[in-house]
Amino acid sequence: EKMKDTPNYEHMRPSTTTYTSAIVAWANSRASDSAEKAEALLHRLEDVYRTTGYRMLRPDAIAFGSVINAWAKCRHQKDAGKRAEAILRRMENNDGKDLTETVAYTNVILA
Question: Most buried among 18, 29, 86, 108, using CB within 10 Å?
Fold first, then answer.
């Protein structure tokens, strides 16, 4: 019964851009857990893409690079560099080297 009064939002779906915007916001946040939050959103994006196969939810270089950048800026966690490198490896394995960009490698080096 309650659904009859609720607007129909089935046509509205998040996209890579939606997720990436949130990832970038966390990556630029000064919160102590910002890198973890950004990575958690990337994991969710990857899971949703893997589950649905919906092209508009394919993680892109910006999403991966933003999480790598968040880890590169993280100074309170000893394994930040390893976490950044792990994201880079996932980026490489996600869909081949086409996603890997120089900026991602630079961010890992900075971590």
Answer: 108
CB-based burial label for 39 (10 Å; 0-12, 13-18, 19+): buried
Please provide the average confidence, as pLDDT, over all residues in the chain. Answer: 82
Give the alpha-carbon dihedral of 58, 62, 63, 68, to 10 degrees: 140
Q: What is the pTM of this model?
A: 0.78
The contacts of residue 42 (CB under 8 Å, 6+ apart) are: 19, 23, 59, 63, 64, 67, 87
DSSP state at residue 8: -
Determine the Cα angle at 31 with ends 30 and 33, to 5°: 130
Q: Is the pLDDT of residue 81 over 80?
A: yes
